[in-house]
Task: structure prediction
Amino acid sequence: QHGETKVVHGPHGCGRKLLRLFGGYTLQVRNPDSWEGWTWGAKHVWGMQPMGQQVPQTNLLWDISKNAELLLFWGCDQETTTWGWQGQLPSRLSYWWSELGIKQIYIAPDCNYANAVHADKWIPVLPNTDAALYLAIAYWWFKNGTYDKEYLETHAYGVDKFEDYVMGREDGVPKTPEWAAPITGVPARTIKALAEEWASKRTTVVIGNGGPAIRGPYSHEPARLQVLCLAMQGLGKPGCNQSKMIEWGLTNSLLQMSQPAPAALLSMWPVYTGGSVRDTNHPSFLPETLVPKAILEGKCDWYGCEQEMAPRENQFVHYKYPADGCSQIHLIWTDSPSWITSWNDGNAFTRAMRHESIEFVFAQHPWIENDCLFADVILPVNTKLEEDDINTDLFGGQMNLLFPEPKCIEPLGESYSDYEIVCMIAERLGLLEEYTDGLSIPERIKMGYEKCGAAHLVSWEQLNEKGYYVIPVADDWEKMPAGLSEFYEDPENHPLTTPTGRIEFYATGLAEHFPDDQERKPVPQWISKGESHQEGLDCERAKKYPLLVISNHPRWGVHAQHDDVTWLREIETCKIKGPDGYQYQPVWMHPVDAAARGIEHGDVVSVFNERGTVLGGAYITERVMPGAISMDHGAKYDPIALGEIDRGGVINTIVPGNITSKKACGMVVSGFLAEVEKTDLEALRKKYPEAFARECHVTAGPCLAGIVENSTGKKGA
Result:
């Protein structure tokens, strides 16, 4: 899943243009994996194109610092996702807000790294039960009148229908704190105290992208309910917004930037050679979440997901595979081979890659990530350090920069950039001129400067002589409205992008297009189980698999990258060394749950359900609540039994295969059921001697020897 902010050599689909030039292809479309719940849920409440999270974010860091009294960090760990482009600024801000006296409450099943450092209070909540917690908070406000009724009369639509559900008038079940307590694991008194504190203080909810809270079964429900709770307290007034701690410059829009706005907004899209999210020129496509199903069953259908930032209206468009007049998939070309580790039901994907309909798999990559193990041919890609490029920094928060990136060293071995590899293939097909538009790499780099939006500020010669150019802050940045203040002050002239222009407690779009959808009703609900998922603790499956799994982004890696970095593996929360010397992915367990299973710290354990088994190292800690276990995604795939048992710790191999809900094709990678037991390593070794005989580096983990053949046909890297 590499990228390293490459531009002219950008991966993630740089072969698309070439494939179009000689006949077309089926595109694997990225689902909105970083913002699933917001896309499939919150967009129907408040619009907020492109991702369903609050826009504008303009000047929110300043607004929080001046006006907020309480910050609710909901499923947020800004100390772990520092690699999400914004650097260390969120960490520094969190320390500063504490110095300013702004209270920070962290709500998550685990005491994550930001929680451990910054929290004034941690409220543990069982995975994927946040919807019940929001409903109980709303109940307390309705009951006691501690919400902004006048605001809702002018800024919201359908509040009466939501109130009927919350108060139990619709289904006979009032969503009281006492009702929510056994579901969420949060005591009723704590729910009441949280509701009262939220209502009595100027409160901002802070997210990264929402974490596991918006990537579980029916994740559109907690996402919608967070917005409704914000609305009940006057969303948009000073100190009362939804603030993000990640990806401030992702969409090249001032509306996404929480920090003081720059004088010029730079963009490298004109010369980015990877697959653009704006590219919808693909008559045949598949959402990433449905690739195994499509290959294994030969067909599938779904709604929406033309691309990961598609507008709300696209969710009502029906698609199918194969598309009319198009073929099934027979060849796979990947430059982002991290499916097993990063998406849903990785074991199903391993079966799909070996399906008889797939005749050839071609991968290009620097590090042979997990999916490369199924490739017929792997071409080596060089790193950013071996390529000439040009770039901007709109994400870091500290400065907005434009800078050329000359390579540090010559490319190692026979490696080329992703773009160069496609160019060489294009040349052999006689399509090089059409693919490159006749531009060399140096010409494309200079074009990046010319079209980025800063050519009027600094000359090409000055830029190369100095090596960078700092974009100054806009003179009028303080005058830019903070967050949703304009909507708060004048909703008629600054409407939202919902059909009514208001915050929709009753989603009119869902009511019109999917009136009979029981898994995503117009009014958000608490859904423990349904047609798509049986992953709640009140399900029959919970008798066999009684623990709820949290799967976070890795603290010591980036998706599937860095799992083999030796000095990171020395950290106890990165790997647990088993009695066999193998370094296992940590499985956080509460002492109560561990004791009930006879598990001690450092034991090798099996995390399993009917979808498969993953081995890990027991990390016994009170930093995770009883009833939940935590196992980060991102480990290196090391199968003992292919598609059944993984020694490396790839938790995504046993996550659900079904999409978010019946008509929302997001991924489900957290908040699912599993059981944990101590592993009998000797029994496994006897049953699978070949797997245990594979070479494994003492500090770097699984090796390629015995798995990958080199160009001579001999095994070994």
Q: What stands out?
A: The longest helix spans residues 130-144. The chain has a mean pLDDT of 93. Residues 381 and 416 are 5 Å apart (CA to CA).
